[in-house]
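Q: what sequence does this backbone want?
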């Protein structure tokens, strides 16, 4: 990346093409709130309470998604999906997307995460090296109805809470607290805060997390996570993921099939494509990256739902000998499912999916990774986005939470979801619709509880196919 073309390319910044006009509206806040009130007559709260089962084939839907993935990684992907109902839920967002497209919805548009389950919140570093906590996964982000996000959050609360051994009554109380928090924050955003105050809202850990957790929560939970996150920097990545080769060069360690080196041809392609990426970052980042050269590249698969997509780690070495690791992730088309139309009235044709992800992330997050950018590989017609790998990034271990911590965590996630939605001007309509009505809370909780049962049905169908060999297993490949 260290050449004279880098800075020139950075100056040729392309304008964003992802259309945000659907969330831009020329109305006052009071007018938006009244529009929300009017929506209650069109879509009464009780209509949101009823889950309408949808006829679809779970296994064929998963297989269709996997037809776009790397085949040798599918056995490991299946193993991860089979780990628990929540793991299955995390990795099969396309199932819920299709189901949501066939439910009653308010269709009030905002920029949504699209996959706002409770495991997709975490810690990361701001450009000023402050530790932040926010939404941290945007592969499915798009313009869509606000309730898609809150429903996915609530269902994930049920599934994780069941793993923790919580009773249904306790789970419903935690869900209730999450929806009430969402309502409260929207109320504060649009009744008490200006547009600039909504924009400047801080998610810095010291000033945010400790103040949002209830008084009886032990601050040690956040302190432990903070200490772990702060230690996860580029040099730590180098120590964990690299070694010296026979020539004494620093290279990534291999761990097939999860981590393997790319061919010389692929390395040259990625090197060229990173020049396109430089056009989508700020000039300050382009100047910084001009001091680095590429030392090594591996294909490195992570996550559950994205496991099997084309993901790479790029080891960069600076002129002073320091290191930086960038992650390149394939950006798949959002909401994909075989044989069914999962597009909505807000879907856009011909968009670049890497650009979609980056655009929506920058809207939803208070501060985003300064290295966040994207490019399109025209040769294979695939989109990719780029970010720094592992930089002060950390997640909460949901399986080891106490009931109190879990309830607080669910509320914090709902708070952040509301804050993210509030960046869309149309969220004023959402505020007018949701208000502080208890009937809405009950409706959303009832729907989520019913849908969690559907997830268990889908999980068992997947497990049957997996156990009987219809879906590839790791041992089958090894044999």
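A:
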């Amino acid at each position: 990346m260290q050449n004279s073309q880098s800075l020139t390319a950075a100056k040729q910044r392309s304008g964003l093409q992802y259309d945000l006009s659907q969330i831009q509206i020329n109305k006052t806040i009071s007018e938006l709130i009244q529009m929300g009130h009017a929506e209650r007559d069109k879509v009464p709260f009780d209509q949101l309470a009823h889950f309408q089962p949808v006829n679809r084939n779970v296994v064929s839907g998963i297989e269709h998604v996997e037809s776009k993935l790397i085949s040798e990684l599918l056995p490991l992907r299946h193993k991860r999906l089979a780990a628990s109902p929540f793991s299955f839920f995390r990795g099969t967002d396309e199932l819920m997307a299709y189901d949501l497209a066939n439910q009653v919805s308010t269709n009030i548009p905002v920029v949504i995460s699209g996959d706002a389950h409770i495991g997709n919140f975490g810690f990361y570093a701001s450009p000023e090296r402050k530790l932040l906590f926010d939404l941290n996964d945007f592969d499915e982000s798009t313009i869509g109805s606000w309730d898609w996000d809150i429903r996915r959050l609530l269902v994930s609360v049920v599934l994780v809470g069941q793993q923790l051994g919580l009773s249904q009554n306790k789970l419903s109380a935690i869900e209730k607290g999450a929806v009430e928090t969402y309502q409260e924050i929207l109320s504060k955003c649009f009744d008490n805060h200006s547009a600039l105050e909504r924009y400047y809202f801080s998610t810095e850990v010291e000033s945010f997390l400790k103040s949002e957790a209830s008084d009886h929560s032990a601050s040690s939970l956040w302190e432990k996570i903070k200490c772990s996150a702060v230690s996860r920097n580029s040099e730590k990545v180098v120590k964990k993921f690299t070694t010296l080769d026979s020539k004494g060069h620093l290279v990534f360690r291999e761990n097939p099939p999860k981590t393997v080196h790319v061919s010389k041809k692929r390395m040259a392609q990625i090197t060229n494509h990173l020049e396109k990426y430089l056009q989508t970052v700020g000039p300050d980042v382009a100047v910084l990256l001009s001091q680095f050269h590429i030392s090594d590249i591996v294909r490195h698969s992570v996550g559950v739902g994205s496991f099997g997509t084309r993901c790479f780690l790029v080891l960069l070495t600076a002129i002073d000998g320091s290191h930086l690791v960038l992650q390149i992730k394939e950006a798949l088309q959002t909401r994909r499912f075989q044989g069914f139309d999962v597009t909505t009235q807000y879907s856009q044709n011909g968009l670049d999916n890497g650009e979609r992800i980056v655009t929506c992330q920058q809207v939803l997050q208070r501060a985003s990774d300064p290295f966040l950018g994207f490019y399109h590989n025209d040769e294979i017609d695939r989109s990719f986005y780029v970010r720094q790998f592992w930089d002060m990034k950390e997640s909460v271990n949901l399986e080891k939470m106490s009931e109190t911590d879990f309830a607080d965590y669910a509320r914090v996630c709902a708070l952040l979801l509301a804050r993210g939605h509030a960046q869309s001007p149309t969220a004023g309509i959402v505020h007018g619709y949701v208000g502080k009505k208890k009937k809405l809370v009950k409706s959303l909780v009832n729907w989520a509880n019913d849908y969690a049962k559907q997830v268990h049905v889908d999980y068992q169908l997947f497990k049957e196919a997996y156990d009987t060999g219809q879906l590839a297993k790791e041992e089958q490949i090894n044999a």
